[in-house]
Amino acid sequence: MKKIIFTLLFILGITSMSAQGLSKKQQDTDIKPYPESVDVVSAKDFGAKADGITDDTDAIQKAMNSFGKRGGTVYLPNGTYLIAGSLNIPQAVTLKGSIESVPSHNGIRNAGLPKPGDDGTTLLITGNKGKDLDGTPAITINTNSTLRGIVMYWPSQDPDKIPDAYPWGVAMKGKNPALLDVEMLNPYNAIDASHNERALIRNISGQPLRRGIYVDAIYDIGRIENVHWNPWWSMRPTLYNWQREHGEAFIFERTDWHYVINTFCFGYNVGYKFGASQGSTGSCNGNFLGIGADACHTSVKVEQSAAYGILITNAEFVALNGDDPTMVEVTNANHGNVRFVNSAFWGPCNQIAKINGEGTVGFSDCIFVQWDRNKENRSAIQVNGGSIVVRGCDFMHDSPQITISKDVQRAIVSENTIKGKVRINNNAKNTYIVGNLGTE
């Protein structure tokens, strides 16, 4: 009997010690994720209050600077950190919040859902209001440094009004800067990904109001993965209509071999804009897979493309807002290549594509629906210059399919399926139009 009692007491003691140990471990984990490591510090150990009232800018910067050149991780425990200035993440330093997968906080728009500050690690950004692109970014990421696992929120923005200008929320500089698992709820300008090498942007969400991601002066491959821009902060008329008139979700200028996968935007003037460099020379070439733009005035606007091309595959585009909603617009300045493969275009738009310039634009195995919304006999694809290739596509609306002007250099239109009569208006000389089958 004594032996049984001793055994029970021993088991209870071990269980109690284990529970105490687990409780202590959980408590430490709330402060820093790897408490046994000298390479991890908590910003609270350097004076950060995380109360949403005290300016924590200096405390967080002091924590990041404490590593010197060796690098390390600054952990921001659950809480709300007021950032009235700007942060500069030193080389090889990670600034990390408590969030392991990018969240959404749309409780300001939809009552009852989480609001910024309700959970996780939230930064309240208030510095440099009114300065636009000439101001210091809220956070700068440098060579081999990382920002991850946080929510960024601009509390002074009014969801009912035209937004106030702010500088970039995040600027990525140097070599191998990384931005991971971050919600940028309502930035005026979200991410400056220019003048760096091998930048990695992954798992980002939010509602940028003027500019989403800007890429320029890139000479070694950058990567953008799983970015979702959606208006879950505000769709109130004054602000949202301003965003739809001025907003640009993704902007690409001079960049070599950019890899972009699984990106989406909703409610912008331009979804994906490709242009000539503002800070370097040249334009974009890259690989764009599984991208989407919904409810934009123009889904894709190409002002300039590199000769070796903008390659877009498995994309989905919907244009239905503005005076002249158009899926693809290629301007007179373009001299390069643009290719769309296995992509879908739908929504009540005026036209699928308006093509100008001297470059080559191609559509292969694509689906076209719902153009000519006002029944004006507009062609799905209007080609005014350059060269055009349309092969194996499905025109699923009974309106004119393609108009080719006399200034077009070359045109191949072949093996397309068409609802209604084949209506291809060809005014060019150097063309190959064959094997297009209608239902009438």
UniProtKB/TrEMBL annotation:
The keyword Lyase does not apply. InterPro entries: Pectin_lyas_fold, Pectin_lyase_fold/virulence, RHGA/B-epi-like_pectate_lyase. Residues 1-19 form the signal peptide. The keyword Signal applies. Residues 41-119 form the Rhamnogalacturonase A/B/Epimerase-like pectate lyase domain. Keywords: Signal. This is Rhamnogalacturonase A/B/Epimerase-like pectate lyase domain-containing protein. The lineage of its organism: Bacteria, Pseudomonadati, Bacteroidota, Bacteroidia, Bacteroidales.
